[in-house]
Sequence to fold (346 residues):
Amino acid sequence: MSLFAMDMPETHTELVEWLEQHLVGLNLASLVAELTAVHGRSDDGETLGDILGTQIPDVIENGLNILDTKQVRSLIRHPSHLIDLQELVLAAGSQHWSKRMTDTADDQFERIAETGWRRVKLAIAPPTGTFKEDSETRPSSLETVTGDSATQVSVPTLRMTEQMQTGKVADRRTSMWRYVLAAAAMLMLGVLGLQQAGVLNLPINPGRQQVTQNDPPVEPAATPTGWGWDKPGAIPGEGPADAYLTQLATAADDWFKKRPDDAAGVKTRITQFRDGCSTLIDSPHDPLAVEDREWLVEKCKVWRGKLDEQLAAIDAGTDPLTVRESTDEIVTKLMTALRTRAQEVA
Fold:
């Protein structure tokens, strides 16, 4: 098994590119575990907001290249924050991170496809010594193909019976079935490779659905409406307190997904986020203890008041981009507060 942290580059530019690839790749959890083993779980209280400060929106939009070396190294020393950062950049879906995700997925899919093709070639044309007539030159062991640690396989030795060796009809049938099975194996490996690369998302064991002529037509699922804390499912009804607060922070990040630059658009966006604050205030917050519930409601009222100030600034003629940037800071701070509280109650 290879250690991803061993490939960490030294220069700032290469380190930024390497870290971004892991943030949108399939192996971030493994990398975080390795870095945690090296640096330990930091108890200095430094949060992701402390490291990135007001640059969180810029990182979400333009990537890690806007950070200095000290900030990037601090992310490495606090690997648990990489999971939070991944959640932010994947949810935002900016052009920079979308391109990075595509490039990284292409590289990983190419590796998965190459490993699968090597396995299929061995199934179609086994090495010398597989069959009886090659017994004099048969090696002590056959070639073993390995891919990812979770999918390591060995191609089994194929043996022919005396009847298959001497019967021409049996030979032709066997040959035909070997090609059919090889084609099926290639198709299955291709689908698995696409699923691992995130290109396909097929259900596993979906089960049979009996449909009769008398069954009523299936109504399509309702399209979710709203965003932020007004989005269906954004405020969970159960679960651990830390996961509850973390999900609230993730829902608040929806603010950064749409960036109007005119007064009417900015005002509408702030108003909708403020409505979400009201929804959050009126929610029961069942997963939280009484103390945490009171803290959250009070904070929500403060955040709603600050949003009212931004709406007043828009009405007074303040530049909408200036108001939007001020609101960015408010949302960033409230997200940081929610994630910090989640770590405290964990």
